[in-house]
Design goal:
Length: about 300
Amino acid sequence: MKRIQYHRYGGPEEMRLEEFELHRPMADQIVVRVKAASVNPVDWKIRNGVMRFMTGSRFPRAMGSDFSGVVEAVGPSVTRIKVGEDVLGTMSMKAGGAFAERLVTDEKLVVVKPAALSFEQAASLPIVGVTAWCGLVDKAQLQPGQSVFIHGCLGSVGRASTQLAMSLGADVAGSCRGTARDDARALGLSRIVDFQQFSADTLQHQFDVVFDTAGTLSLRDGRTLLKPGGVVLDISPSPGKLFGILLSRQHKMVVAKPSTEVLAKVAEMAAMGRLRPVIGRTVPLARAIPALRELERQGTPKGKLVVTWNHQ
């Protein structure tokens, strides 16, 4: 069977679609025949070696995090997931391996796929949905009636965060490129500002929560947007910004921590139509590497890039 992997850290030229041998599942693991896998920026950040202190130096390393598929086998300690069930889930950062025909992952990183979701939709949920949940629910403890500003509201995490905040009863404003205002308006935001031209001073002290899903707001701008007692969330701070976050009670860094409980809530919300993943492009595994290179070079498209095995 085949998967996308690499033999050393580096750029997109290191990716290879190669034969590999799937290891047997351990006691608490499952084997999944992959139907779809979605691409996240973290996938190429890991390949570039940005997180090598966490991922180690053993090669070849497999690429891909989020997936959906059908369970083919389970370890002896697995009780919640059954052979033959449709599932969605993610891989551990250290393991990777979603861009493949089959994978092995931990039972705790997988939930049953709601029948209302296609495999492509389900594969688009885990990291973005969990990140939105960890930020707005766990870190900010968002309450109905509060005001939220989503910086980068049309990115994958931005869209999920916007929809989640609205479903929790918040009033949501956001930023995007000026040419994409119609797309942002379709999400139902109360106010939309130009991502590249807005001044935080014109919106000062208006929001209980500021979620920087693009990682480009300065510490000053984040504080300017906040009401007293509010909180700024950041998913991708620069090293200098990270130091400032560590010294500030107003700023919190958001790291997606997948759990069965949160994955199940995200999947349920998607099945109810309260989280609607947008798929920009679907490609078969055999043609995934050129699509990955293009996405990495040109940036986020209007929706997720999804890799499938049986796509025609």
